[in-house]
Amino acid sequence: MTLQRLVLIAALGLLACEAGFALPRALVLRIDQADLAWGDSRLVAKLTTALTRDPEIRVVVADHQVDSFRPFPPELHNLDSLLDWGTGVGGRYLLLIQVDREGLECRKTFSVPVLFHRWETLAVITGEMRLIDLQKRRLVLAEPFHEKLTASRQFQSSSEDNSHDPALHVSAGEKTELFDALESRLVDQLSRKVARHTRGR
């Protein structure tokens, strides 16, 4: 490569910087979630897709390959350990999603004594999100999340009053579609919050 070509490449690089062009900032994503009995969760894929809609963000999923390269800290609330780990894998941000529960709930929502009861079956996902700015070495965001989606409603006579009524059950196929929609709703909320705290920073 000639000296003139090297000078040209360097000049283009300087012009790009002056024009405000920058490499995407790496956001390391780690999701802790138990396996689902009715199918595979698509939370990682959905959140990765949503976050990378921002051209300034490049998502690095902390999978087994990354974890084996640098074992993830056992203490999930030790900020210093998380800062060191995230910086070590080359991140600008570290986004931790801890899913505590993802399942179905059946609850009585309305009742007229002696006459009837109304029951609802809900898909619920709860947990906590934490966003860490690795460059500034600080916790930017730490919030619980609680999303729910109604699966079905059922009326029972007062004499039945049974939360185990087969009519309240959700089939395996319906569960897959229901939790897919629930995770999409959660991803929309999480990605909006991440965008507010990373855009232009």
Architecture overview:
This protein is α/β, with parallel strands linked by helices and 201 residues long. Helices cover 34% and strands 35% of the residues. The chain has helices at 3-18, 43-51, 64-69, 79-88, 172-198, and strands at residues 25-32, 57-61, 93-112, 116-133, 138-157. Helix 2 (43-51) packs parallel to helix 5 (172-198).
The strand order across the widest sheet is: 2-1-3-4-5
Low-confidence stretches: 3-22, 155-159
| Contiguous helical run count | 5
- The radius of gyration over CA amounts to 23 Å
Average pLDDT metric: 77
Tell me the β content: 35-45%
Give the strand tally.
5
Largest sheet at a glance? 5 strands, mixed
The sequence of SSEs as H and E is HEHEHHEEEH
**Distance N terminus to C terminus?**
36 Å
Principal-axis shape equals elongated
Helices and strands, with pairings:
Layout: H1 3-18, E1 25-32, H2 43-51, E2 57-61, H3 64-69, H4 79-88, E3 93-112, E4 116-133, E5 138-157, H5 172-198
Helix pairs in contact: 2-5
Brief rundown of the structure:
It is built from five helices and five strands. The chain is of the alpha/beta class and 201 residues long.
Relevant terms:
five-stranded mixed β-sheet; 201 residues; alpha/beta; 35% strand; disordered N terminus; 34% helix
